[in-house]
TrEMBL record:
Cofactor(s) of this protein: Ca(2+)
The encoding gene: plcd1a
Active-site residues, record numbering mapped to chain: 318, 363
Binding note for cofactor: Binds 3 Ca(2+) ions per subunit. Two of the Ca(2+) ions are bound to the C2 domain.
Protein name: Phosphoinositide phospholipase C
Domain of life: Eukaryota
Upper taxonomic lineage: Eukaryota, Metazoa, Chordata, Craniata, Vertebrata
């Protein structure tokens, strides 16, 4: 894969990267490689010219800062979350005139890095920047794990080549090894160098660099697996491959599938003609989605989406408008975009009276900043269905006066248009929820309603404004604010806002029997986490049966002022659908949430197990009673190796990680477990463990599996290197690669784990 000098190598990989996505010769890409002037905008008065240019690696954007000491700064395309064309960001909307709409665009970064608001000389150039960057981002997402790995190694080589002579001295080789997270003693480094320096010139170049790369990236464990399965003149015939897929990977495949894999991934034409898979082809296959831990069939929508809405877990956000904590952090439309782009399907809007008659959204009784209700609805309309077509629920916490409520209703109706569900589907009074499929590209309003739903079929005739009790969450908010305790717990509700609450009418919870006897299917309650956990522990079966007919929303306690999260798993165990978390807070709980909604096309909807949907079920997650839900399995995990783990302290060249791997299982109480490997000293590049662990699983349909890679520290808490979480039902057996994500849930492009997994019936 590598050829010649470092310069040639980098060019080959850039060409490979661009050709694989059809970008070779692309005019937008060529424009970015040439670079150009853009205006960076921070305020009305702070607008500075900056020269931006895409580096030759097609992965790094460079720009020059015009400070007293000129600084050349870079950031990786990997760091970009998404692009926004026009004056869509809060900064550009506020600091630029509408006349430059077409010239403006914003780069939104992952995590909490500030947006980059930019203005081009004209609309054509702005389009080239946006289109070019989006094409590269799309291309990078589509690269195989092996291509990402090679690209990362070569970039590290480039950084190690301090004098840019396209050669590598022993000193530069040591620097490179530290770059890729390996600590070796001087003798070992000198031995590698001597082994590769065939010309005895004191530096590596050309084929010598290729030899060094091959030594470095040699995968002993892949060699062993291949050797055990390749029984045809040292190669893996189609029959050998089929046996491997059937017996080791436990896949339901045929000879046709084995031949397709050879055709798709074999890199040697001679081997391909013989219908064989070489070692290189096998490695290529193992790095593709077929070799991933996540079942490829689950990357698309594969579940039945025609069941009633309450039969699904729904990805849900709490206080969606917040970017940070609950007391003084900023409110922003960007927070809604980030949540929706992660396929969140239920967002929260805390609505209050604002200046000039305009309703605003913020966390009441706190110092959090305010954002216009109108702007939030516009953003929701624009981004709701970018990643999923399935319905979005707008959960309103309404504190507004009647006049501003009328304006809220006006904005919802005028901006969302026909996508807003403003009356029941069909001509008759429904007796059950419509399905996610029925509600594709639709918005549902969750809030208070003045009358029963059947009035909506009669055009809500004779309805007048009246008082209703506040949302339970609003009352809880007041409990945490001494000044507000004397406020009334009722508000006057505008009929215009009441009329558009159809399938999600908020009511107070007065017990399971009361709900069963008195509540209609569309009347739903919100539960503070402490109340919900208590019900799940003391009345689990009743709670599960309640959720077979109704929707339940769970929200974090008001005491979580730091925007921390509760464990969502016990709530899913109780059949609760709308388990709302603080999406802005990177945490173990959000990792589990991201894993729960990873399958089914990351649509934000996951069909609940049948025993949480069948009215005859007596399932209780805390009791191991026999029933169709009890499907005991033994889960064997062998942690084999890791590849290219990132350095945590990039400022310290000599800082190398000491990695360990922990496997965590979350489900019913009997299934919760955690086991970990030993740590490996000073090797984040290719550590090997070969350690085996066994877990007993009673309810695999509710189990979540999380892999955590940490940097071991004897004196303080271990640091997170990467993590990955998914439902146990989406795990593929056999030898599998596992991608790793950051604490914020973003992909670490080159890093991964290699494991062997087997879920079997106990003897």
């Amino acid at each position: 894969m590598l050829h010649g000098t470092l310069e040639c190598t980098l060019r080959v990989h850039t060409d490979l990267c661009m050709t694989s996505a059809g970008l070779e010769g692309d005019p937008d890409l060529q424009f970015l490689l040439l670079g150009g002037e853009l205006i960076k905008i921070r305020s009305r008065s702070w607008k500075k010219n900056r020269f931006f240019k895409l580096q030759e690696d097609c992965k790094t954007l460079w720009y020059e800062s015009h400070k007293i000491f000129k600084r050349k700064q870079t950031f990786s395309i990997d760091d970009i979350d998404y692009m926004r064309k026009g004056r869509q960001s809060e900064g550009l909307n506020k600091h630029t005139p509408s006349s430059v709409e077409g010239q403006c665009f914003t780069i939104i970064f992952k995590g909490r890095k500030k947006n980059l608001d930019l203005m081009a000389a004209n609309e054509d150039e702005a389009n080239k920047w946006v289109n070019g960057l989006e094409k590269i981002m799309s291309n990078m997402l589509n690269l195989s794990q092996q291509q990402k790995s090679e690209h990362w190694i070569i970039n590290c080589m480039r950084k190690a080549d301090k004098n840019d002579d396209n050669k590598m001295t022993l000193k530069e080789l040591k620097h490179f090894l530290r770059q890729v997270n390996i600590e070796v003693d001087d003798t070992y480094a000198a031995d590698i160098f001597k082994q590769c320096d065939k010309s005895n010139s004191g530096s590596l170049e050309g084929s010598e660099i290729k030899h060094f790369y091959d030594l470095l990236t040699y995968r002993e464990e892949i060699d062993v697996i291949y050797g055990q399965c390749a029984h045809t003149d040292g190669q893996m015939s189609a029959e050998d491959l089929l046996n491997f897929l059937l017996n080791e990977q436990r896949e339901q495949v045929s000879m046709v599938d084995a031949l397709k894999l050879i055709e798709k991934y074999e890199v040697d034409e001679t081997a391909k003609q013989k219908k064989c898979m070489s070692k290189d082809g096998f490695l290529m296959y193992m790095h593709q989605e077929e070799g991933s831990i996540l079942n490829p069939a689950h990357k698309q929508v594969y579940q039945d989406m025609h069941q009633p809405l309450n039969h699904y877990y729904i990805s849900s956000s709490h206080n969606t408008y917040l970017m940070a904590d609950q007391l003084k952090g900023p409110s922003s439309t960007e927070a809604y975009i980030k949540a929706l782009m992660k396929s969140c399907r239920c967002v929260e809007l805390d609505c209050w009276d604002g200046a000039n008659g305009e309703p605003v959204i913020y966390h009441g009784y706190t110092l959090t900043s305010k954002v216009l209700f109108r702007d939030v609805i516009k953003v929701i309309k624009d981004y709701a269905f970018k990643t999923s077509d399935y319905p979005v629920i707008l959960s309103l916490e309404n504190h507004c006066t009647v006049d501003q409520q009328k304006l809220m209703a006006h904005y919802l109706i005028s901006i969302l248009g026909d996508a807003l569900v403003s009356k029941p589907l069909g001509n008759n009074m429904p007796t059950n929820f419509p399905s996610p499929e029925d509600l594709k590209q639709k918005f549902l309003i969750k809030g208070k309603r003045l009358n029963k739903l059947d009035a909506a079929l009669n055009n809500n005739s004779f309805i007048e404004e009246d008082t209703v009790s506040e949302e339970d969450e609003a009352a809880d908010c007041k409990e945490n604010d001494q000044k507000a305790k004397t406020k009334k717990s009722k508000i006057k509700l505008a009929k215009e806002l009441s009329n558009i609450v159809i399938y999600c009418k908020s009511v107070h919870f007065s017990g399971f029997e009361h709900a069963k006897e008195m509540q209609a299917f569309y009347e739903m309650s919100s539960f503070k986490e402490s109340k919900a956990f208590h019900l799940a522990e003391t009345s689990a079966t009743a709670y599960i049966n309640h959720n077979m007919d109704k929707l339940s929303r769970i929200y974090p306690s008001g005491s979580r002022t730091d925007s921390s999260n509760y464990n969502p798993v016990p709530m899913w165990n109780a059949g609760c659908q709308i388990v709302a978390l603080n999406f802005q807070t990177p945490s173990k709980e959000m990792h589990i949430n991201q894993g729960r909604f990873l399958p089914n096309g990351a649509s934000g909807y996951i069909l609940k197990p049948e025993f949480q949907r069948s009215l005859s079920s007596q399932f209780d997650p805390s009791v191991l009673t026999k029933g169709p839900w009890l499907k005991k399995k033994t889960f064997n995990v062998m942690v084999i190796s890791a590849q290219q783990l990132p350095k945590l302290n990039k400022d310290k060249e000599n800082s190398i990680v000491d990695p360990l791997v922990r496997m965590e299982l979350y489900g019913v109480p009997a299934d919760n477990a955690s086991k970990e490997t030993h740590y490996i000293n000073n090797n984040g590049f290719n550590p090997m463990w070969n350690e085996t662990f066994v877990f007993d699983v009673h309810f695999p349909e509710l189990a979540m599996l999380r892999f955590v890679v940490e940097d071991y520290d004897t004196t303080s808490q271990n640091d997170l290197i990467g993590q990955y979480c998914l439902p146990l039902t989406s795990v593929q057996s056999g030898y599998r690669h596992i991608p790793l994500l950051t604490k914020r849930g973003d992909l670490i492009s080159s890093a991964g784990l290699f494991v062997h997994l087997m879920l079997i019936d106990p003897e």
